[in-house]
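Apologies for my clumsy wording, but could you write out the amino acids of a protein and the tokens describing how it folds?
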Amino acid sequence: MSDHISVTSTGDALRQALAPLGFTEIEAQAYGALLARPDQTGYRLAQAIGKGQPSVYAALTGLEAKGAVSATGQSPRTYRAAPPAELLARLRARQDRQFEEAARLLERIAAPPPAGAVTQMTDPDQIFARAEAMIGRAREMLIWEMSGGPVAALRPALVAATARGVRSSGLVLRAEDVVEGSTCIVSPVGDKVATVWPVAPLILVADGREALVAGVPLATGGREGEALWTDNLFLSVVLHNALASDLLLHRDASPDWVGPNRALFDAHPPGFREFIAQPE
């Protein structure tokens, strides 16, 4: 059975899919119609999509410029849609070049951030982008605590960093979060921690020079995260040392370990109890 579907049944979806790629509404309709039925004249195409001939011919000119359609040299001219994979590959390559050109221009314009800055972020995509950039900038060492979604998002960057010689050590909650190439400590109380924390922690220090402390939503759906990034050397070094100590504590802990707070104070601090909504 063929999985071919009609253009009319996907008109709105087609327009929405192609609009971000620079297609006008009529261009999207015309491309879809030619994809479903090649070798149409402009006159027949106008009839098929219910648009005036001047608008359709203008759309065809735009589509030819995008490489989305080609025309025969015969009279009357007929048009054929480029194969979707070929078109999308060309558009992706063009978009990549545009991003590279924009990045070069913006880098020349942007003033360097003040040293010792502290930046707050709430958008999860921005948080992950900053973490990935930090990993890319690291030259000697990375230390981190994360599991679940953050590990899945940042695993390729961490693997690439260790491949170029960066030493990486991390604390994870479950064995499936271990990242190849990194020295990972699986917390003996990871399952307990995962059921208590209302967010997925993402704590990362690169070279003891910049640090990110973040909590991202456990599920997608547009919810905000919480994050602070800094390149303050004092704060970054303090957090690096704190993470190193935490990794060693978890490495040497037994499965019935109660954690450092209960070992020291026989209780979690009030702020942590509020954070996890634990009753007094």
Remarks:
- The chain has two domains: 8-87, 118-275.
- The radius of gyration is 27 Å.
- The first helix runs from residue 11 to 18.
